[in-house]
Amino acid sequence: MGSGRVALLLFLSVALLQALLPAPAEGLVRVVLKKLPVVERGRLSLSAERRRGFLGSGNGAAAASRNAELEEEGDIVALKNYLNAQYYGEVGIGTPPQRFTVIFDTGSSNLWVPSSKCSLSIACYFHERYRAGQSKTYKKNGKYASIHYGTGAISGYFSQDSVKIGDVVVKNQDFIEATREPGITFMVAKFDGILGLGFREISVGNAVPVWYNMVKQNLVGDPVFSFWFNRHADEGQGGEIVFGGIDPSHHKGNHTYVPVTRKGYWQFDMGDVLIGGKSTGFCAAGCAAIADFGTSLLTGPKAIITQINEKIGAAGVVSQECKAVVSQYGQQILDQLLAETQPSKVCSSVGLCTFDGTHGVSGRIQSVVEDEVEKSNGLFDDAMCNACETAVVWMQSQLAQNQTQDLVLQYINQLCERFPSSMGESSVDCSRLPSMPDIAFTIGGRKFTLKPEQYILKVGEGPSTQCISGFTAMDIPPPRGPLWILGDIFMGAYHTVFDYGNLKVGFAEAA
């Protein structure tokens, strides 16, 4: 999640009491927080922005037992699991350290926290604020900075100070003092700021990321960090970030590594997606994916996410454009595919898109002056083109399974009913979990499977329990997309290693 980044935030309208307990000063450095019970559970809502979260936690005795084993491995930041959707960690900025709850985000590269000079944004009054005058190691910078996160944004200026992560102190670290946090995005957030662990290529102001300085200042043994999540919300320990090594107790078996294909986010190539063991064919030729600790859910192209949500019975929102395309152009699209027309050209052949050489785009040509009717028609044209391209993907999948034409069109109509809502939310019947299919992702030639209990979020208790699909749709066009974002839903099941030294990402079953 850097400047201009399209991402997903998960919002939780719930309250939490927090208590901080000091970690034992032995062996490896750990940041440990204690979780208190949730005193109010509200409705889980999803928006076009992704919700971040970490809260360091853990059992002191358990943490101590691993310290000796990991002394040479690296530094640890323990995480706290908040309803399987939010993870927080604590850092200190300045001398003496001023404590902040932050998100360690592999999808961005800057560190920012609210500034004491933030007086016009209500959000700042709900969080800890950095006070430069109270730090002996503060150095003025003053360069303006602004970061946009979907529907939220912050702005302010750069400053420089020491940053403490556990017992490790990073010196002369550039970070952003946020003086403006407009809107409610950060007002309702459980965290104070964000600490980015992405590459410098997406760093606002070209600031050197904290992780880079940890390596440069020889504060870690190896240029590697790894994430382990504890997906059991009723347990105190939420997980750990290990800086400089890998905790062998966090995973089972060996990791499967894939090279980073594009620096910025931790991006790599992913293969086929399977539903209930059956290939969807959508990524058979390869798709791009990023491992992102800052995204709570698992995000993918609408065409395949809709199929997944249909199979698990997730209720979406009826798309009239989708139904219109199927009823008016369904047979033409089918005929084109049976005639082996190149799929990327089908929608232009039926007149719903134009072809730009690689894929279909809206055929609308916007004039300099257009009235409200023309604007509305233009938006409709865009939706019809997108619906057509989605239908092509679905039809290809069904034809590959040798389905009859009538069954194909019938199935596509059913999928139109499962289109995800504009806010991304898809609820499911909790009683259906035992009958839901496994969903698998092919990475490095290996299938990484998610079971229903791993990809369904449960919120609440007893009769009021809500079950939310962990899959949400977001279409990112070529050349950047199609792009999958493997967020906490995936990383909760698979221990993830970010190997900065060898530019690769590794996955193994989480312990």
UniProtKB/TrEMBL annotation:
Localization in the cell: Vacuole
The protein, known as: Aspartic proteinase oryzasin-1
GO biological process: lipid metabolic process; proteolysis
InterPro entries attached to this UniProt entry: Aspartic_peptidase_A1, Aspartic_peptidase_AS, PEPTIDASE_A1, Peptidase_aspartic_dom_sf, Phytepsin, SapB_1, SapB_2, Saposin-like
Disulfide linkage: C118-C124
Family: Belongs to the peptidase A1 family.
Domain Peptidase A1: 87-508
Signal peptide: 1-27
Chief location category: other
Gene Ontology molecular functions: aspartic-type endopeptidase activity
Saposin B-type domain mapped to chain residues: 317-357, 381-422
Record key words, sorted: Aspartyl protease, Disulfide bond, Glycoprotein, Hydrolase, Protease, Signal, Vacuole, Zymogen
